[in-house]
Design brief:
Largest sheet: 5 strands, mixed
Number of domains: 1
Number of helices: 5
Order of helices and strands: EHEHEHEEHHEEEEE
Strand content: 25-35%
CATH class: Alpha Beta
Structural class: alpha/beta
CATH architecture: 4-Layer Sandwich
Helix content: 10-25%
């Protein structure tokens, strides 16, 4: 079992309460608009951290990360980017990846697959950008989408939000929404 803390859109502010809420996680994932290299370094010093850059990131943050990050945790294939959208409203440049994932999943149903074909699948799609917390299953492409909202104070959202969940084999479980009142 792997415990994940998911955060996005800090915009240079790493609220100290994040450390309290993520003290029991195994990894932190940041879905972009980090805001400063110091925020990224603080997260990395605290826990192993996977991250992508966002459209507002520049300089050291942009140069040390990529726009898209594909990785596997236990039996879950993850695609993370900052500007992604949600079911029915994805950014168009993601559709070829999603179609390839769906094709691979359909092929898996027909019989055994090569290991590299299995790597094409997406089980969990993670993004940020909108500052709107949203967790939704995409019935067409057959993966879970997660956007943790915004952990920073920039924007119009009434509170800062984080997600915490576990990956246990091929299951995504124990999802918790954490709301931080603005100080």
């Amino acid at each position: 079992m792997t415990r994940i803390g998911l955060i996005s859109d800090t915009h240079g502010l790493l609220d100290k309460r994040v450390f309290e809420h993520f003290k029991e996680v195994d990894e932190i994932w940041h879905a972009g608009d980090i805001g400063s290299i110091e925020v990224l370094q603080a997260l990395r010093e605290f826990k192993p951290t996977r991250a992508v850059f966002g459209n507002m990131d520049s300089g050291d943050v942009r140069y040390s990360l990529s726009e898209f990050y594909r990785f596997r945790v236990e039996d879950i294939n993850v695609l993370m980017t900052h500007i992604g959208g949600y079911p029915g409203k994805y950014n168009p440049w993601l559709i070829p990846w999603f179609k390839k994932s769906l094709d691979a999943k359909q092929q898996m149903e027909k019989g055994p697959m090569e290991k590299d074909q299995m790597a094409d699948t997406i089980d969990l799609f993670v993004c940020g950008h909108s500052h709107i917390l949203k967790v939704q299953y995409d019935k067409y492409y057959r993966f879970l989408t997660m956007n943790p909202g915004a952990a920073g104070k920039q924007g119009w959202q009434p509170c800062q939000t984080l997600l915490r969940f576990t990956i246990d084999g091929s299951k995504i479980e124990n999802l918790e929404v954490i709301e931080l009142k603005r100080n």
